[in-house]
Each structure stands twice: as C-alpha cells, then as structure tokens.
Design a protein that fits this description.
heterodimer; A: 6 helices; 10 strands; about 25% helix; disordered N terminus; B: alpha+beta; nine-stranded mixed beta barrel; 6 helices; about 20% helix
C-alpha cells in the first residue's frame, strides 16, 4: 500500500469526523478556508446581480482559539492527525470559549471577590446566552488571528497604555458607581463599534445599492447600513463608524472609518482588566471586513483592525459564519428601556454611602457620653481646684 | 381627493387599465385642472427588481407636527421657556387624525390627561410609570416611529422590509412572505406585510403597551392593533395611512394619514441619533453621589 495523496486523506478523515460528529449530535458543516472552490456549488445572486449573502449567520464553532498557543510558533495549520485528535476531544469536553475575552470573563468569575461570586457574567444575563448546539466546523487553523504571522493580537502602543494609566489615575478617588460614567458601555446599554464584528448573530439583508447587517447583540439590534454605490464619505463620526462597501468578485468588502472617539468608554470608566473589550481610541480605527460565501451555509468572514493609535501593527481575524435556520429569532433587545441594572447599581452605591455615614454617626453618638463625662470631670476639677 | 382615490381603486379591480387611466385623468382635470397629476392616481411606481411590487427603497421622513400632538393644535410654548426661549416650541398643525378626534374610553381619556400632566416626570425606580418614553430615549413604537421628525430608511428586499430609524437606532422588520405569530410582545410590535395591488399593507400586533403616540400623552394599550397602508403616490411620496384599534382604550377604530417625503439631498444618509447617553442625567441624575453632582 502506498500513502494516499493528501487531499484524499483529508477527505477520508473528514468523512470519519462527520460520522463521529453526527453520532454526538453535532453537525459538521462544510470545512472553511477556500473549501468552496473546486466544487460545483454556485454562489446565488440577487435579482440585480450581486452575490446573495442574505440570511441569519452566527460564528461557526471551529475549536480554534483566537490567538495561537505559544508552542505552535508560526505554524498556521494543524496536521490531519492533530485535527482528528481535536475533533475527538471536542466530542468529550465542554466547549472552550474561542474568544479570549470570553475566556478572561470566565477566569474573572472564578477569581471574583466572595461578594461578587455567582454574579459576574451569570445572573439574569445568562438568559440571553444561546445554549443550543452550535454548528461545528472542523478547522485546521491554529488560530483565528491570521495576521501577524505569529497568530497573536499585537501589543498596544505605549501611547494607548499611557492613556489607560491616565484613566486609572483619574478614577483613583471614585467609587464603583458614583455616576453612570463609572459603569461600562454595555451596562449603560450603549453599543460600542466593536459589537459590529463580535455580535453573536447577524442578519444580512440586501437591497439594490445596499447591504445591511442587522446585529443580534445583547444591547442592540442596530442595523449597519452599507452603501455600495461609491458615494463619498460625509466624515461624520458614528458609534458604528461610517461604512462604504464594494464587491471584489464574489467578496463583499466593507471599509469603515470615522468611529466615534467615545467608544472606549471615556476618561473614568473602570475595567477589571484594561484589555477586556478594549477596542481602541476609535478616532484612528479603520476596520476592513470581507464576506465571501463559500457554500450554501458558510460565509468566510474576516476583519482587519488597523488602529495605529492603539495597536503597534494591524491584525486580521478569520472566522467562518454559519447560516442559521430562518426561524432563528432575533428578538428586540430594548436594553436601555429595561435597564434596571444601572438603577440598581447607582441605588446600591447610595445605600452603601448612607450606611457608612450612619455607622459613623452611631459611633460618634457612642463617644458623646464619654465626652460629656470627661467634660463634667474637667469642669468639676476646675471648680474645686482651680480657685 | 379621498373619494377620487376610492373610485380609482374600485375601477382598477374591475376595469381595464387604459380606461382607468383615461377616467382618472378626466376626473382629475374636472376636479381641479390646476393641480395636474394627483398622487396615486395614474402613477406607476418602478418595481423592485425580481418582483412585481413597487420599490419602496429610499430615505423618507414625515413633515407633520404629529410627534407633538397627533390632533390639530395651536402653537404652544417650549416645556422650559425660561431656559430655552423659543427653542423647542410646539408648532401649530392640523393633526393627522381623521375627523381630529380620538375615541377614548372615559378611563383612557383620564389616563391621557394624566400622561400629559406628567409628561416630563421621572421616577428612576419606576421608569415606565410616568413620562413620555421619547424623552427617555425609549423605542418609539408604531405608528409613532413613522412620524417622528427624523429620517428613516426603507430597505426593501424581496422577502422582507427593514425600516431603520435614526431616532434611538430603532428598527422594525416587516415579513412579506414568512408570516408568523409574534413570539413575544415588544416596543415596535410584530409586522407581517402583504400587497394589496400596489399598496403595502402591514398588520402590526404584539405591542407591550408602553409606547406613547405623541408628546401630548396620547397612547394605546397592549392590545393595540395597527394596520398600515403604504402607497407610492409619486417618485417622491409615500401616502401613509394607518387604522388604530384597541378595544381596551378606544370605543372604535380610528385612522391617521399623512404623506412621507423622500429625502432628496445628494448626500442624504442615515446618521446617529443614539440618545441613550443624552438621557442618563435626566433618568438617573437623582441617584448620583452628592459630591459628584
């Protein structure tokens, strides 16, 4: 027996994975990264001739971490044997968050102070987290970050770190909820620009001359409207930035600039870790997004963050999107309309302060009788001895 | 005008198009020769590619005073004239309600009056108890979103229509083919659309009963049922009409109508009107730390 050529080996392995995954109730979607090429599948078109990306899409579960583990160095792909081992392990283990931000959140929950254990990231917000089985895409990439070559999100610039240090100093004498500005943008139901590429789901709609990405995130259903007709930029800053799109073959390319500078939270917003959900200054960010439909149920989605004020080099993330069934619900989020959380945080902080003041008063009252007694003795002594 | 439109609609169903066009033109000339072509009579709207239906894509805006008061009213001072003078005055307008009367039940009329009295009252511990939701940057609901004084964009696809509103980044999706019951109540309702010839008819239900109809405290309850009709009456106008029904609040259905105007500026684009951060002091100001105020 001679060794099979590599593509056949991969195909055989994928067939085996399919059986394994189907057996465990997980659907193996089409493998990504150019897998649409070479088969007979034709990308559908809209009535006016644009590639049709319409539908509801969520991030596929690839089992690939956002950043590459150190031991893999510059190695971009796993061997088929390593992929097989990964798929098998995925069938036995609980899901590992792909997003390092999510992973940090979980670490923080475990490390939380006793008073906050069981609250951080869990409480009522858990209601909104989709627990259903996600479509799994076996992926041989070693990281979702594909640029720079080490597969890691580049370091922040010194200027960005200094800005974070200034923010820490600015809030040195502030409490956790002196005002709403001491809480983060998500808690205030203000959606920062990063939501546009980290939202759990998105519905893509197309009209002649426009693509619309309707986001399904905890605090927004905001539609990002992308003109395709080459109209000039207005230069008016927006939370979601100013987007312009065009087609490069079957690929939708969106370039977004003019993000609002307030999207990193302002001068005093607290963060447990400065990196968490820190997108950048906003002002200098250019976001490049690419959507290529490579199969009926798969879009190859990548985004490049170029923000010289914040990151020392640009970085690019490649994440496949999986098509959801038409009945995938995107309920109205109405976050601000039901923001009992911020009212509770501010009220609780005021109650804490009142408690502290009352406790100090009680203690002061208990000293009053002693003071009175000392005063009486002093006066008595003065009367009897002073003359 | 309304009568003429009804005649045309009736003719259209029975007669041939050429005779309808001739008749429409003749009626139009007889009624008011100076007005020329009447919207909706002989206008043939361009079709959305791949469909037989009028193409509603564009950026639109109402030009009424209905967001202040859906009924006709004379001009009123701004809420705080000692602070802002003539800024924010309520302009006078004829209203958008047919017959200029809302058939409230007696208890609902009392609530409308209380709403008006407390339109700018805030209790942060009971954020839905009093005050106009618009001042709190809450989602405007339907039909109010259609006549707020801000632009909105219609993104018309073959199976759905997305309406994206500048105010509060609100949006609504109208399902044209996949009609389903609402899974849950919400601010903007649940919209199923269909075509009555060239008119888009949208059935809107599943409201949470918290939205107001204007700054004057007009309101409807959670059993509100709105049936909207959108007719492209020229390249630049959509004639909008809605029937409002809520047996808990009103003694009979009633109707509003007004034109939506296409925004024609070359650089027109939907921008941010994300008002949450502009309302935090208004909503939570009484809950901040004394020394930080």
């Amino acid at each position: 027996m001679t060794e099979q050529p590599r593509p056949c080996t991969v195909g055989l392995l994928l067939t085996v994975f399919t059986v394994v995954l189907l057996g465990s109730g997980v659907i193996l979607a089409q493998s990504s990264s150019g897998s649409g090429q070479g088969n007979n599948w034709m990308a559908p078109r809209t009535a006016w001739g644009d590639p049709d990306l319409q539908g509801k899409w969520t991030f596929a579960t690839t089992g690939t971490p956002m950043e590459r583990p150190n031991e893999l160095g510059d190695r971009e792909f796993l061997t088929p044997e390593e992929v097989a081992a990964k798929v098998e392990a995925a069938g036995n283990a609980e899901a590992v968050p792909e997003d390092p931000e999510e992973a940090r959140d979980e670490t923080l929950a475990a490390d939380a102070r006793p008073t906050e254990q069981g609250i951080f990231g869990q409480e009522y917000n858990r209601f909104w987290v989709i627990e259903t089985e996600r479509n799994a895409t076996a992926w041989n990439r070693t990281s979702l970050v594909i640029e720079p070559p080490n597969g890691k999100i580049p370091p922040l610039t010194l200027a960005a770190v200094e800005r974070l240090e200034q923010r820490e100093s600015a809030r040195a004498h502030r409490g956790e909820a002196d005002t709403w500005e001491d809480r983060n943008l998500a808690e205030r139901c203000i959606s920062p620009g990063r939501i546009r590429f980290t939202a759990s789901g998105r519905e893509i709609l197309q009209a002649p001359g426009f693509v619309v990405i309707r986001l399904d995130a905890l605090n927004t259903n905001e539609p990002v409207i992308v003109p395709l007709d080459g109209q000039p930029r207005l230069g008016i800053r927006r939370w979601m930035g100013e987007s312009r799109g065009h087609w490069e073959g079957n690929t939708l390319v969106i370039e977004t600039t003019n993000f609002l500078g307030r999207q990193d939270g302002g001068p005093v917003m607290p963060k447990r870790s400065p990196l968490i959900r820190y997108l950048g200054s906003g002002e200098g960010l250019t976001l490049y997004e690419r959507f290529t439909r490579v199969g009926p149920n798969t879009i190859e989605y990548s985004y490049t963050v170029e923000d010289p004020m914040v990151y020392v080099t640009p970085y690019t993330v490649l994440r496949p999107l999986t098509k959801e069934a038409d009945d995938y619900l995107m309920p109205e989020s109405a976050c601000h309309e039901g923001n009992y959380g911020i009212v509770g945080q501010l009220s609780a902080a005021r109650v804490d302060e009142t408690y502290a003041i009352n406790a100090a008063r009680e203690e002061a009252a208990s000293r009053q009788s002693q003071l009175q007694e000392m005063k009486q003795r002093a006066q008595e002594w003065q009367r009897t001895q002073g003359r | 005008m309304v009568l003429k439109l009804k005649i045309c609609a009736g003719q259209r169903r029975r007669g041939s198009i050429p005779s309808l066009l001739i008749l429409t033109f003749a009626v139009s000339l007889l009624a008011n020769p100076a007005e020329g072509q009447q919207p909706g009579e002989s206008y043939q709207a361009p079709r959305l590619p791949g469909t037989q239906n009028p193409n509603l894509n564009g950026i639109w805006q109402a030009l009424t005073t209905a967001n202040w008061d859906i009924l006709g009213d004379t001009s009123q001072p701004a809420p705080f004239p000692e602070l802002i003078g003539a800024w924010g005055v309520q302009p006078s307008g004829p209203g958008i309600v047919e017959g200029n009367e809302i058939p409230y039940r007696p208890e609902a009329l009392a609530k409308k009056r209380a709403n008006f009295e407390n339109r700018l009252t805030i209790d942060p511990q009971n954020i839905h108890e009093s005050g106009d939701p618009e001042a709190k940057c809450f989602l405007p609901g339907v039909p109010r979103a259609m006549y707020q004084p801000y632009p909105f964009q219609i993104l018309h696809t073959s199976e759905k229509i997305l309406m994206a509103f500048e105010f509060a980044s609100a949006s609504r999706v109208i399902e044209l083919t996949n009609h389903e019951e609402a899974p849950v109540t919400n601010w903007m309702g649940w919209s199923n659309g269909s075509w009555d010839q060239d008119t888009l008819v949208v059935d809107v239900t599943a409201f949470n009963g918290l939205a107001w109809l204007d700054r004057s405290g007009n309101f409807a309850g959670e059993n509100l049922h709105v049936v909207e009709r959108y007719t492209l009456s020229s390249p630049y106008h959509i004639q909008y009409e809605a029937t409002i029904e809520d047996p808990d609040t009103f003694t009979r259905p009633w109707t509003i109508s007004f034109p939506l105007y296409r925004r024609m500026e070359e650089n027109v684009e939907l921008l941010d009107m994300k008002c949450v951060e502009f309302t935090e002091d208004y909503l939570y100001g009484t809950l901040t730390k004394e020394t930080s105020r």
